[in-house]
Amino acid sequence: MKTITRRTAAAVLGAALTATAATGAAVAAPTASTTSNRASSDKHVLLLSVDGLHQSDLDWYVKAHPASALAALVGHGTSYTNAQTPVPSDSFPGMVGQVTGGNPGTTGVYYDDTYNRALLPAGTTTCAGVTPGAEVAYTEAADKNQNALDAGQGLAGLPNSILQMTGNAKSLLNPAALPVDPTTCKPVYPNQYLKVNTVFEVAKQAGLRTAWSDKHVAYDILSGPSGAGIDDLFAPEINSDASIAGFSGDWTKDNAATQQYDSYKVQAVLNEIAGKDHSGTQNVGEPGIFGMNFQTVSTAQKLPTSDGLAGGYFADGVTPGPLLTRGLDYINTEVGQLTAAIAKTPDAKKTTVILSAKHGQSPMDPASLKRVDDGPIIDGLNAAWRAAGHSSDLVAFSTDDDVMQLWLTEHTQAAADFAKQYLASHPAAGNDINGSALTVQDSGLTTVYAGSQVADFFHTSASDSRIPDIFGIVQHGVVYTGGKGKIAEHGGADPQDRHVPIVVSQGTDSGASTVTSTVETTQIAPTILRELGLNANDLQAVRIEGTQVLPQH
Questions:
Q1: Could you read off the pLDDT of 99-132 as tens digits, one per residue?
Q2: Comparing C-alpha atoms, which of 169, 221, 227, 225 is closest to residue 190?
Q3: Max CA distance (Å), the chain
Q4: Residues contacting residue 261 through CB under 8 Å, at least 6 positions apart
C-alpha cells in the first residue's frame, strides 16, 4: 500500500546530461566506450525475466517435465542455483540491476514508487519558492493514459492492434505526472533519474541494435542517462483496463488475461528474432541485446484464485498449486517458442539465452501469510508524533509491500528514531490465508533501520535525497495490504523474494553445468557484455561496485 502527504527527439548518445546531485537526476552521461572494436553483429543475447520465478520453481518444473523446453534450456547451459536479487526486491531495482550491474545505492533506483526530498511535485511549473519533496512514481501513473493498453497512444482496435504501439516509449510518458527538477524547472524523466549507464547504451556505442519489452512505458529508464540506449521499447501497460472475452479489468487481476498480455510481448520478441521491429512490419535486423519480462507467474502466485483455480502453492510451500502450475506450463511453451525460433536463425550458435527474474515472491507457504493493513500503523505513528507536541504528521510518503519504507516530513535522526521506537513497540491487526483475524507484534517487522542506518544499509550517503528515513524488514509472511486480495508479494529482503534462478545457455553449449556459489542478478549485466565480446568495465556500476562477470563452470 502507498500513501502520501504533500508538503507546502532522444538525447544524442554520449551528450552531457548533467544535473546537481541534489535533484537526484543523472549525475552524468556515460563516457565514451573503451571497447577497442565494434561488436560483431552476429552475436546476440536474449534476456528473459520471469517475474516471481524462484529457483525452487524451476527445479520442480524441470524434474516434473524432463522433456520440456525449460529442461532443455537448463540441460544446455549453466545454472547458478544460489542467485540473489538486490534489496529492495522490487521490479524496478531488480531489472535496473540486471542491465547496469549496480545495486540501488549505486543506481539511485530503490523502487518504482518512491519519494525524493530534493525534487518538486509533479505538475510544478513555477519553481521559485516551492518546498522540495515529491513522489517519484515511475509506474502506470506516469502514462499519458494509464487505463489504455497503449498507454495513451490512441490506437484503434485494441487489444488486437497493440503490436502497432510505438517503440518510442518515452513519447507516451506524461510530463505533468513526473517530478520536477528545481534547478531547471523541468520534469525528470525515468532515464534521467538513473545515475549510471546500461548494457543497452554500451551495445549502442558498439554499433549494435537493441530492443526490450516490459510492463510500463516508464521502463524507458533502461535506455540509460543518454535516453538513447534502446532502439525499440515495446511497453504495453499491464495495469490498464482489459476488455477481452470472459474478463474486464486490470490485466493482472486475472491470470488468463495476464497470459494474453504476456503473449503480445512474446510475439514482439519473435518478430525481433526474425530480424524485424517489434511490430513485425519493418526489416531492421536482429538486435544484439533484446528480451522481455513475463508477468504470468507473478500473478499466479499473488491471486488467491483465478479462472476457477487456486493460486500460490500447496501446503508444503514448494509444490505449485493448480493456477501456478498452469502458469509455469505457459512459460515453458513460450520459452520453447522463442528458443525454437532462435534455432532457425543463421546466428543460432552465437546467441546466448539468459533466464532469470526481477524478483521472487513471499510467502510460498500459505500458512505463513499475514496480511496487515499498513494504514492504521501509519495513522498511529502520526498520532503519536502529534501527541508528542508536533503540529503535523510525521509520514510524508510510504511504500509498503512486504517491506516498509517511510519518508518523513522531518528528516532528522531524532524523528527517524521516534518512528523506529513506535514501530518496534506496537502490534498490528491482520488476517491469515483463510481471512481469520490475527495480530502481529512490532508492526509486523523483524528489523527496522532508521536514519543513518538506512544509508549504511544501502552503502550510500546519509545526504542521499532518495533513501527512506525508515527501512523495515518484515517478519516472514507479512504482506502489507488492505483486504484479502493477495496471498503473496515482493519488494523486501525475504529469501523467497530474492532467491531466483539464473540460467545462461550459450548456442554452443552441449551439456548442463551448475554453479552453487552465491551470485547476484546484477552480475547478469557484465555477463551480457562478455557474451557480446564487449568490455564489462564500460558499465559505470561495474566499475563502482566491482561487479564480476558470472563465473564459468
A1: 999 999 999 999 999 999 999 999 999 999 999 9
A2: 221
A3: 72
A4: 236, 238, 242, 251, 295
